[in-house]
Amino acid sequence: MSYAKQLLDTYPRDFNLDAGMLADTIDALSDCAQACTACADDCLSERDVAELVKCIRLNLDCADVCTTTLRVVSRQTEYDANLTRPQLQACIATCRSCGDECERHAPMHQHCRVCAEACRRCERACNQLLAAMR
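^ that's the sequence the OP posted. Answer follows.
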């Protein structure tokens, strides 16, 4: 069981989301942020780094957006959906862009393949959480 789920299970108040779904989203956000950070670093080590500038930029942006989204959705006290919805939408768009770019490079760079998978998983998790909030 993830730490996110364990902590959500100890939350002293009720909240309107499924704890398992929320924990899965938090875990996907964390994994995506880590994968994007590592992929950017791996891209910097490639010989054709000039070809990977956009990928590196999107990796870094995606890692930052995922980390921010993780922090926002982890806070349940006095939760405000008007803040969380647009944050999730931004994360979905960022993961989609980063995943698309990494998929372009995946045939040549395995780290981009792994990162694209993490981005797609995070995009799906954020979409599911967003749908559950409506």
